[in-house]
Amino acid sequence: MKKALTIAGSDSGGGAGIQADLKTFMAFGVYGMSAVTALTAQNTEGVQGIFDISPEFVREQIQSVMTDIGADAVKTGMLSNAAIVRTVADAVRDFRIANLVVDPVMVAKSGDSLLAPEARQAVREELLPLATIITPNIFEAEMLLDRRIEGLDAMRAAAQELKTFGCPWVVLKGGHLDIEGESIDVLCGGGELHFLRSPRLDSRNTHGTGCTFASAIAAGLANRRTPPEAVRLAKEYVTEAIRNGLSMGSGRGPTNHLTGVRSRW
After folding, report:
1. Catalytic pick from 40, 209, 239, 255?
2. How much is the pTM?
3. Contact 165, 129 (CB under 8 A)
């Protein structure tokens, strides 16, 4: 059985963070492990509190997994502050981690900040060059590039510019832009550029889609899929997870991570 490690924050509401990652790994038949970077008091309405784990203990968790079980792919999510970003980057180098998917989590869908402003530079300089593939949404790409991104042509240019940070593959997610009723992501890498299209679904149950998408890509890489194959399968999975989303709570409900998985019940 292939193995994947998520290095991310915990979502007490269960829809995003390591909870979403582990559910996604299992949906793809991959054994999931976790290194928790932060605890959040969170629900469908937003983030009520954040408690950062010490960088030393984040390192210890990664070391425990990598020196015993190992991982065929690793996904990073919420890293909270610059010290944790640098700790994770050092661990990626020290343990020679391959198949690294970086979801540069900066802001929750509720608008709550999940990354300290001073940590953005650490993400640019320390982590992105180590990634196999990065998965920023429009807002995160704007923060990384320090400029606005509006429309498909701007997305194309931004995806190509993001590659200059040193990662061979970029998926710029366009879910926040309504382009002719479609959700369009831009995949850039391998000397090619592709538009990945899916219908825009009218649903409020989209909490955790970014975490789920990046984790699905990591699961695909763990299963020896090429980056384009892993991204395509991940987009199909997330689209169906949104289509079958769960109406829980009074805010943005979670996606359905059991999409396509037969229940024993």
Report:
1. 209
2. 0.94
3. yes
pLDDT by residue (tens digit) across 75-122? 999 998 999 999 999 999 999 999 999 999 887 666 667 787 888 899
In single-letter form, the type of residue at position 119 comes to A
Cβ proximity of 137 and 173 under 8 Å = yes
Residue-wise pLDDT tens digits, 160-202: 999 999 999 999 998 777 677 788 999 999 998 999 998 888 8
> How far, in whole angstroms, is CA 88 from its chain's centroid?
15
Q: Which of 210, 220, 245, 253 is catalytic?
A: 210
- Kindly state the tokens that stand for 14: 């269960």
* Domains in the chain: ranges and CATH: 3-243 (3.40.1190.20)
Catalytic residue among 14, 208, 220, 245: 208
| Rounded Cα gap, residues 148 and 116, in angstroms | 20
Q: Residue written as tokens 């997994």?
A: 65
For residue 72, count other CB atoms closer than 10 A to its CB. 19
Angle between helices 227-243 and 209-222 (to 10 degrees): 140
